[in-house]
Amino acid sequence: MINLKSPVALALAGSMALGACTVPASDPNAPPVPAGQNTQQGALVGAGVGALAGALSKGDGNRGDAALIGAVIGSAVGAGIGYSLDRQEADLRNQLGNDNVTIVNTGDRLIVSLPQDILFATDSFAIRSDLQTDLRTVASNLRQYPQSTIQVIGHTDSDGDAAYNQRLSERRAGAVRDVLINAGVSSARVRSIGRGESQPVASNLSADGKAQNRRVEIVILPNA
After folding, report:
1. Last-in-domain residue among 79, 95, 111
2. Can you tell me whether residue 14 is helix, strand or coil?
3. Whether 83 contacts 22, CB under 8 Å
4. Taking every annotated instance into account, which residue ranges of this chain make up the domain OmpA-like (predicted)?
5. N or C: which end of the chain has fewer CB within 10 A?
6. Can you spell out the DSSP letters for 113-167?
7. d(CA 85, CA 93)
């Protein structure tokens, strides 16, 4: 049984408390995170994870010391990730300058959300030529910050056949992935995924909700 005042328990409590406050990754209406908060959150979450890993790697007699060492290392790594994400987010906002593109910083990833209505014509997966400029800007930012992997995730509303929507979301995600790769992002970093209509962020009962659900998300995941 873990002592409630032990380093392991304290670190885990902090990690869980912060995790409960994390903004959902796919929420495009999330408020901006105050400057520096992601650095602090990353440090605390890293400390919790590091403490747990350190404690589990040692026998009962050495778990306290191992947890403290793990917490220090994890805190440094987590703070570095949070700080890097804050910088990358600021640079990306300045480089894009497009109010139609939403950027959410959750503290452990960046989610760049592009409404499908500005990327594609209805039932098409050919990216509009004027929007390819924005995608090339994102690609330039990804090259500037190479220590990450990228998931390109396509989403649709619930209109039409679910199987058709799934295929369309896959093709649209793949089209965005191809633009990023053609703009110089390593193909080894980028994976395209189709979610179809399975992960709405708004109600499909209204036109506005459907428009929010039709989107492509570029999820930037820092390497630990």
Report:
1. 95
2. helix
3. no
4. 107-224
5. N
6. EEEHHHHB-TT--SBPHHHHHHHHHHHHHHHHS-SEEEEEEEE--S-S-HHHHHH
7. 12
Mean pLDDT by 10 residues, the chain (224 residues): 49 46 46 50 50 52 53 48 92 91 94 92 89 94 97 96 97 97 98 98 96 96 90
Nearest Cα residue to 216 out of 129, 130, 153, 124: 153
115 and 62 share one domain: no
Q: Output the CA–CA distances (angstroms, integers) from residue 123 to 63, 116, 135, 153, 170, in the order listed.
A: 57, 10, 20, 17, 12
If one counts the domains in the chain, the total is 2
Residues 163 and 132 in one domain: yes
Helix axis angle, 63-96 to 37-56, nearest 10°: 150
Question: Domain containing 69: what range?
Answer: 34-95
How crowded is residue 111: how many other Cβ atoms within 10 Å of its Cβ? 22
Domain end position, chosen among 95, 111, 135: 95
69 & 120 share domain: no
Query: Are residues 160 and 59 part of one domain?
Result: no
Torsion angles phi and psi, residue 156, rounded to 5: -125, 175
Distance of CA 51 to the CA centre of its chain: 24
CB 141 within 8 A of CB 182: no
* Whole-number pLDDT of residue 37: 52
Buried b (16+ CB within 10 A) or exposed e, 3-28: eeeebbebbbebbeebeeeeeeebeb
Is 20 part of a structural domain of the chain?
Answer: no
Task: Based on the fold, state whether residues 39 and 109 are members of the same structural domain.
Answer: no
At 210, list the tokens: 């459907």
Please tell me whether residues 87 and 152 are part of one structural domain: no
